[in-house]
Amino acid sequence: MTNPETVRTIVGIIGNVISFFLFLSPLPTFFKIWREKSVQSFRPDPYIATVLNCAMWVLYGLPLVHPDSLLVVTINGTGFFIEMFYITIFFIYSDWPKRRKILVALLVEVVFMAVVILITLLGLHGTKSRSLFVGILCIVFNIMMYTSPLTIMKRVIKTKSVKFMPFYLSLTNFLNGIVWSIYALIKLDPFVLVPNSLGSLSGLVQLVLYATYYRTTKWDDDSTTQTEIELQSSSSAPQA
């Protein structure tokens, strides 16, 4: 009989692979920034938010907080550095006012993480209380990050067009949520399960919308804005 822990590890590795490609999904945006030597109308906000999200999940997965969560640490640690690379590119090709905003936002995140780490490691004792504290924060941040997908879905319904909601991203988001939900169920982890269940539901709704409005989409219409494309790309950040 297959060891549940082995199955969990295999599922987690699959989740790492899917999540890794989701983290890479904004690359076309940054290739365009590099090619044009300008950030144009793109915004750094989603990537700055994802940096904090990844940092929180890395903290959650540490043995001192939630044991046996190495695969949560590996993918979010990788995602942290990928997002920092994106922010670095954005910083290089931004003017000073935008650079200042990026620096201030990152400073706020560093201070926030320092406070959370101090409370977690010094103020709380035992992995149960630490997991509860950090896990709730992770869920809250993940729910806040669903603003982008909701905005995109509202836009799809309003315009009856899926042009700015690429099918492969919606499908991958759905699969990512399903895989990490299975991972969380094998050895029950509600803090990983809740955001990824919501993520899989969000992905499923996007797929249903795609099937519904595919025929009414005007593919030769160039009205899709950079902001809309960026929102869909940035909303693909994994939830575990």
TrEMBL record:
<feature type="transmembrane region" description="Helical">
    <location>
        <begin position="132"/>
        <end position="152"/>
    </location>
</feature>
<feature type="transmembrane region" description="Helical">
    <location>
        <begin position="46"/>
        <end position="65"/>
    </location>
</feature>
<feature type="transmembrane region" description="Helical">
    <location>
        <begin position="102"/>
        <end position="126"/>
    </location>
</feature>
<dbReference type="Pfam" id="PF03083">
    <property type="entry name" value="MtN3_slv"/>
</dbReference>
<feature type="transmembrane region" description="Helical">
    <location>
        <begin position="192"/>
        <end position="213"/>
    </location>
</feature>
<feature type="transmembrane region" description="Helical">
    <location>
        <begin position="6"/>
        <end position="25"/>
    </location>
</feature>
<comment type="function">
    <text>Mediates both low-affinity uptake and efflux of sugar across the membrane.</text>
</comment>
<feature type="transmembrane region" description="Helical">
    <location>
        <begin position="71"/>
        <end position="93"/>
    </location>
</feature>
<keyword id="KW-1133">Transmembrane helix</keyword>
<comment type="similarity">
    <text>Belongs to the SWEET sugar transporter family.</text>
</comment>
<keyword id="KW-0677">Repeat</keyword>
<keyword id="KW-0812">Transmembrane</keyword>
<protein>
    <recommendedName>
        <fullName>Bidirectional sugar transporter SWEET</fullName>
    </recommendedName>
</protein>
<dbReference type="InterPro" id="IPR047664">
    <property type="entry name" value="SWEET"/>
</dbReference>
<feature type="transmembrane region" description="Helical">
    <location>
        <begin position="164"/>
        <end position="186"/>
    </location>
</feature>
<dbReference type="InterPro" id="IPR004316">
    <property type="entry name" value="SWEET_rpt"/>
</dbReference>
<keyword id="KW-0813">Transport</keyword>
<keyword id="KW-0472">Membrane</keyword>
<keyword id="KW-0762">Sugar transport</keyword>
